[in-house]
Amino acid sequence: MSKIITLGEIMLRLSTEGNARFVQANHFCIVPGGGEANVAVSLSNYGHEACFVSKLPKHEIGQIAVNALRSYGVDTQYIVRGGDRVGLYYAETGASMRPSKVIYDRAHSAIAEATPNEFDFDAIMKGAQWFHWSGITPALSDNAAQMVKRACEAARRNGVTVSVDLNFRKKLWTSEKAISVMRPLMQYVDVCIGNEEDAQLCLGFKPDADVEGGRTDAEGYHRIFELMAREFGFKYVVSTLRESYSATHNGWKALIYNGKEFYESRRYDINPIIDRVGGGDSFAAGLIHGLLTKPTQGEALEFAVAASALKHTVYGDFNLMSADEVESLVQGNASGRVQR
Question: For the Carbohydrate kinase PfkB domain, which residue ranges apply (predicted)?
Fold first, then answer.
């Protein structure tokens, strides 16, 4: 299997029990997670050498996050220890027509205040086949944006494939700031992942699709994929296509373009959703695994979509499915019958 590097922030999620609202909570459950950390856990579960790069405090709260990654086989040797705090976010799980809610408490976290010189990215990229980051990381601070740039440059020097999940977060930065930072970084990217909102708010491209209205015809994405691939030289452009009927019922499929051909995946009807957080990260990890191990882009995409569909049935940020379990769903085993 491959050595894969991910760079970003791991936080501690404080979740209410079940579908309780914040104002009802007497206590919160601690759930470690964060975009690129979630990707690393999935890839480790698939048998890859997954390495997570970040900065966390030396104290016991920082150790909670490190221990969580280690428990799933993620290599934490490149995590710099220092700084004062671990980023937090509070999560309230919605139901039916009531949406889930997230409240961030991540300002001045260790990784947001880290400097690029704290990381030897050439040493980190040595022997790696893949480097993955998301738009969340450069949104944390100007230093973090420079850190991503340095990592991408090192990946390029070392012949490492680079993927990005655009992941626009309006609570972290504006679209104008995102476009000014993200577009120059695209010169290093081989595989671009993002939904229709991400493509518009991070790169300035808008597909002909209305997800809020339930219209996610893949044809509306074809032209914009072609333009993105032509402008930035992407080897693959990929988008998830989510149909949101309620907080607990979604349609889920994806589209991939390799510069020559489009492939649209099977559609999954996910109902009920147990936990939507980390769904996009599980898709990114599944796609990376698929592109590294499958002979065609179609097979890679089917693995990614199935992996993400299964993640929606797992509580917490991490996707805890094995490659065999994902392959079983790809082959059509979706009955949910007890395995004995």
Answer: 1-317
